Amino acid sequence: MTELNGAESLVRSLIASGVDTCFTNPGTSEMHFVAALDKVPGMRSVLALFEGVATGAADGYFRMAEKPACTLLHLGPGLANGLANLHNAKKAGSGVVNIVGEHAASHIELDAPLTSDIAGIARPMSHWVHASISAADVGADAARAVQAARTPPGQVATLILPSDTAWTSGGQVAEPFAVPERGHLDTAALDRAIAALDGPDSLLLLGGRALTEAALETAGRIAAQTGCALLSEWSNARMERGAGRVAVGKVPYPIDLALEALDRYRRIVLVGARAPIGFFAYPGKPAILSRDGAEIISLAGAGDDLAGTLEALSDAVGASRMAPSGVGTRQDIALPQGAATPETIAAVLGRTIPEHAIVVDESVTTGRGFFAATTGAAPHTWLNNCGGSIGYGLPVAIGAAIACPDRKVLALTGDGSAMYTPQALWTMAREQLDVTIVIFANRSYEILRGELTNVGVRNPGPRAIDMLSLSRPDLGWVGMARAMGVDGCRAGDAPGLEAAIKTGLAKPGPYLIELEC
Ligand SMILES: Cc1ncc(C[n+]2csc(CCOP(=O)(O)OP(=O)(O)O)c2C)c(N)n1
């Protein structure tokens, strides 16, 4: 038997640890990893034409597969191109294993063009960073990277792979390392939570794995028994929703609405959520969104056993036999007529989201009313951007579609956001992913027009307005999609949108709808 080189031991060790999907954008230093993909069966490899697509796809994959994928990135600059979506993955609690090629040790001291401080670039967006020293270490390093990525709720792990460790023989395949368990119940906090949840001025604020179907049902029983309200954070990595599921609203994004929504709560219990804070600071407005003097009880953090915590809380308040409150029911929504507005688009979505669909939401301003209008839609999964770095939606849709090939994916995105990672369309076409994309072509960074006022700018001038406009020239989305192998159409009103969504959902493979709105 021939000896394995480091790259082969890496691929075999990743597979042994359960990582069998790789989103790649390789270069010379990663060629032995690329070659190993043919020698070692079992790693699905997906090429992305920009690293932000690869890292975002890995985020979407984790959210739906509940296990990490790996990325393959080209030295410091390749990693740097992927950082914004690694930031989003980190904030979402998604586990990702980055494999980043590096020069051979002997080459680094020569300061060749692609030499950079890879660990320094990786650290802010990674929980774990390590550089392999020799071919014999690579397998165990890979297993350790997967262990780090699987540490609850999910972490970003970056393994730097010098090219000589990849090509040298002597690679050892490593067994998986044990994954740390989720944190257990804090009984002192449970006692405080039991006392706090009493009546409509108390709130159970949910995040992370507290938003699975089963956990939501438990939360609904607690609400029925105690009279507390239920809400989730503004952005959630993954929420199960629709008819038959306990419907939970979100803390609104606009600062004034958020303050108003939370003002009524004197006691807030956090399960997998953070205490509510503003997305940004605004002049003369508070950054803490809860009312002054509100009691905040942190019952369980994102890495804890949230379903178990909610069960314990339910038992303790005597809710186990209650029927959950707030269960979404199927609504008959009439087909809206006329222009595509946030309201008519929301109604179309309420009518058309297919059963078990995965909705990837980067709809920004257009989507502010989507949530309320879709609580009675067919049961579905909703993914939000938790890190606020736009350009997450199309890549995350790739990862979700690869993790769940039997489910329809609906990617809803602002035109501004979609322009950060449009290369995702090409990967969708190449992999024939079943994604229907709706681009809200309002030709504007619309949200920022509101933010201009919110931060106190009065009467903005034409140059300021020009920085928030996407016209001159208009983007041609259908042409752009076709150039990357994705079919599509334009829609100009609400009935046209519904017809286009139905066409997209009926067709296998990706389909893009450019919606004038
Ligand atoms: C990486 C990154 N760059 C810039 C921003 C600032 N930003 C937030 S929203 C936005 C525009 C979004 O435009 P679009 O997706 O068209 O949505 P709309 O506001 O028009 O609904 C920008 C530029 C950001 N959040 N992240």
Strand fraction equals: 15-25%
The overall strand count is 18
Uncertain regions: pLDDT < 50 for 5+ in a row? none
Tell the overall outline: globular
The level of helicity is 25-40%
Q: SS-based structural class?
A: alpha/beta
Associated small molecules: thiamine diphosphate
Q: What count of helical segments does DSSP give?
A: 21
N-to-C terminal Cα separation, in Å?
63 Å
Oligomer: single chain
Q: What Rg do the Cα atoms give? A: 24 Å
Mean pLDDT: 96
Biggest β-sheet strands, sense, barrel? 7 strands, mixed
For the largest sheet, list the strands in their spatial order: 9-14-13-15-16-18-17
Q: Keywords, please?
A:
517 residues; alpha/beta; 7-stranded mixed β-sheet; 21 helices
Q: Could you explain the architecture of this structure?
A:
By secondary structure, the chain is an alpha/beta fold. It is built from 21 helices and 18 strands. Strands 9-14-13-15-16-18-17 form a seven-stranded mixed sheet, sandwiched between helices. A six-stranded parallel sheet has the order 2-1-3-4-6-5, sandwiched between helices. Strand 1 (21-25), helix 2 (31-39) and strand 2 form a beta-alpha-beta unit. Helix 1 (6-16) packs across helix 2 (31-39) and helix 3 packs parallel to helix 4. The longest helix has 18 residues, at 75-92. The protein starts with 5 loop residues before the first helix and ends with a strand. The mean pLDDT is 96. It binds thiamine diphosphate.
